[in-house]
Amino acid sequence: MMIKELSEAIGVSGQEDAVREVILKAIKDHAKDIRIDPLGNVLAIKPGDGTRPDAPRVMVAAHMDEVGFMVLGVDSNGAIRVGAVGGFDPRILPGLRVVIGKDRVPAVFNWKPIHMGYDRTTVTLDNLRLDIGATSKEQANGKVNVGDRAAFITAYREHGRIAMGKAFDDRVGCAVLIELIQGEPLPFDVHVAFTVQEEVGLRGAQVAAQAIKPDVAFVLEGTTAHDLPPVEEDPEAPRTSPVTELGKGPALTLADNSVIVDRRLLNHLRETAEAEGIPYQYKQAAIGGTDAGAIMVANAGVPSAVISVPCRYIHSPAAMCNLDDAANAARLLRAALARFTPAVLARAGDME
Ligand SMILES: [Zn+2]
Asked: Residue 228: what pLDDT?
């Protein structure tokens, strides 16, 4: 699975170009009707073998964008002000290296040295600046421009079956979708979408669903895993839900802040996993949002479900996932599609 190249490409929301290039190269010999829509979504069809002409129109989506920063301006001393693109905890930022713009200008979030005493300032983006080594506004302006994105920069590494890298939310979903596209044909055409601007409001998926007009949709995600709690968390306190755990298989969403998953699709995914002996887990907290939230309410409504790879430390410089979970997400997606018939949507599972 090509997670490394996807992870190391930079695609902060609204500027997904480098990720799009990686994806186009990966799918060009395996998909038809490949097109880039006006917002930058990559839409394509994975051709089926035509053995199930009565199949519903199925869309599978993964988002290309990642969280990061946007340059808002430069102070007179050359320090760069940035705003957030997507959500993260500012406490992870002091001292962190990022790169700015297409030239990948290296920068660091400034912070007072420990030699001057422990800095108890509450960390917010407002009291941080990016330092590129410029000494004046004029000098910085030659290197970065207002509107440039700044991104985390982390080399991808594997240690056994554990992978570490940036932007696994949602490049691991993109990798799973590429795996599907590069694999054997399914019994029917599958409409695929690599979407833009998920992290800032599920925007690309909304128009992708309007263009594809699917009967049903599956969304692939890298989702929260908090299965290694910080040591200072009180062991006596009620345990925080890990949401998902690494190594226990792909996670199925019941509901999150954006969607209540279609019960028939959830049953279909669970039955598929059990029939095929694929491990799975439920996402244990109804947090976060996914493209499924936008696709579900597109057109006249699209029953939607989410398959996620559990990832520690999403929306931070270095996420971690288990490659077996990613492989099993790909197996589950393929098997669920191969077994998909109109009966999945016809049955009254949601009335039980
Ligand atoms: Zn995501």
From this structure: 83
The residue ranges of the chain whose pLDDT is under 70 are: 229-235, 237-239, 347-352
Single-letter amino acid, residue 276? E
Q: Ligand 1 centre and the CA of 288: distance in Å?
A: 9
Q: Are residues 53 and 94 in the same domain?
A: no
What residue ranges in the chain does DSSP mark as E strands? 32-36, 42-46, 58-63, 68-74, 80-85, 97-100, 105-109, 130-131, 149-152, 157-159, 162-165, 190-195, 216-225, 251-252, 281-282, 304-312, 319-322
Ligand 1 centre to CA of 221 (Å) is: 5
- Same-domain pairing of 142 and 196: no
Q: Are residues 116 and 248 in the same domain?
A: no
Q: What is the mean pLDDT of the chain?
A: 94
Q: Do the Cβ atoms of 258 and 202 come closer than 8 Å?
A: yes
CA–CA separation, 68 vs 87, rounded Å?
8
pTM over 0.90: yes
Structural domain that includes position 295? 3-66+166-230+239-351
Do 181 and 266 reside in the same domain of the chain? yes
Using the mean position of ligand 1's atoms as its centre, give its distance from the Cα of residue 77 in Å: 36
Catalytic site positions: 198
Q: What pLDDT is stored for residue 219 in this prediction? A: 98
Q: Is the same domain home to 208 and 130?
A: no
Q: Distance, CA 62 to ligand 1 centroid (Å)?
A: 8
Tell me the pLDDT tens digit for each residue of 207-238.
999 999 999 999 999 999 998 866 666 667 66
